[in-house]
């Protein structure tokens, strides 16, 4: 259960993260917890100079970035994953930190953001992360992926169209969205089959959040 009223009072980032993980019912390895907090520190520092995200303070970043990304952890269990339009590494970098058995490719066309991601990958010693600076329409991948995800990268039908060329057989396409995308579903069906639309419960956040699972139509 979310305790949204607590968000009104700023908390220590480590305590906020721990309480959020408890609400999600997740046990995260101590090394991963340390890396998440280090990633947060790096994001805060780089954001001052490079404006990587509109969220400015550490407490809000834990909620809007870390816990929001972690809320899809149990659904997105694919082995080789691609995060399209990853921005500051959301959700791909966060999920890669928590699950070192997953291989993540983080793609973004913004050079400032991919430089930050490369710095974070090296600083955190992440062997399961590859950073790509390219436009999705122009990038030629050397492999197909089991899962392709995006967090509000573009409209649902456009995201499905862009994700399809990168999908291995039986791959999942995951769209993290705000409001339930009822109006957009008919537009997507021609490119992909919509399997599920799940409500995401992000601790301390009142905002409506959903995860749409699609698969390419062969």
Using DSSP, what is the number of strands?
7
Beta-strand content estimate: 15-25%
Distance between the termini: 39 Å
Overall geometry comes to globular
Mean pLDDT: 92
Our Rg estimate from Cα atoms comes to 17 Å
Number of helices: 7
Going by helix content, strand content and strand pairing, the class is alpha/beta
Low-confidence stretches: none
Spell the H/E element sequence: HHHEHEHEEHEHEE
The percentage helix is 25-40%
Going across the major beta sheet, what is the strand order? 3-2-1-4-5-7-6
State the major sheet.
7 strands, mixed
Gist?
This protein is of the alpha/beta class and 218 residues long. Helices cover 36% and strands 22% of the residues.
List the helices and strands and how they pair.
Layout: H1 13-24, H2 30-50, H3 58-70, E1 80-84, H4 92-98, E2 103-108, H5 111-124, E3 129-133, E4 145-151, H6 156-163, E5 167-177, H7 185-188, E6 192-199, E7 210-216
Parallel strand pairs: 1-2, 1-4, 2-3, 4-5
Antiparallel strand pairs: 5-7, 6-7
Helix pairs in contact: 1-3, 2-3, 2-5
Structure, explained:
With 218 residues, the protein is of the alpha/beta class. α1 runs parallel beside α3. The protein has a seven-stranded mixed β-sheet with strand order 3-2-1-4-5-7-6, with helices on both faces. α5 links the parallel β2 and β3 (129-133). The longest helix is centred in the first third of the chain and has 21 residues, at 30-50. It has seven helices and seven strands. The relative contact order is 0.15.
């Amino acid at each position: 259960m979310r305790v949204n009223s607590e968000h009104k009072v700023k908390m220590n980032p480590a305590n906020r993260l721990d309480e959020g993980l408890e609400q999600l019912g997740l046990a995260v390895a101590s090394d991963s917890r340390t890396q998440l907090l280090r990633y947060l520190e790096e994001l805060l520092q780089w954001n001052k100079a490079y404006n990587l995200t509109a969220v400015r303070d550490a407490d809000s970043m834990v909620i809007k970035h870390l816990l929001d990304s972690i809320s899809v952890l149990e659904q997105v269990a694919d082995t080789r994953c691609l995060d399209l339009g990853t921005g500051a590494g959301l959700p791909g970098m966060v999920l890669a930190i928590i699950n070192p058995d997953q291989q993540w490719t983080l793609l973004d066309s913004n050079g400032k953001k991919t430089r930050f991601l490369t710095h974070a990958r090296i600083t955190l010693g992440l062997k399961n992360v590859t950073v790509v600076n390219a436009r999705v329409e122009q990038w030629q991948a050397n492999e197909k992926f089991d899962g392709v995800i995006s967090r509000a990268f573009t409209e649902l039908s456009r995201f499905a169209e862009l994700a399809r060329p990168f999908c291995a057989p039986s791959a999942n396409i995951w769209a993290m969205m705000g409001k339930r995308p009822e109006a957009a579903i008919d537009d997507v069906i021609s490119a992909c089959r919509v399997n599920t639309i799940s409500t995401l419960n992000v601790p301390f956040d009142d905002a409506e959040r959903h995860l749409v699972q699609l698969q390419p139509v062969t």
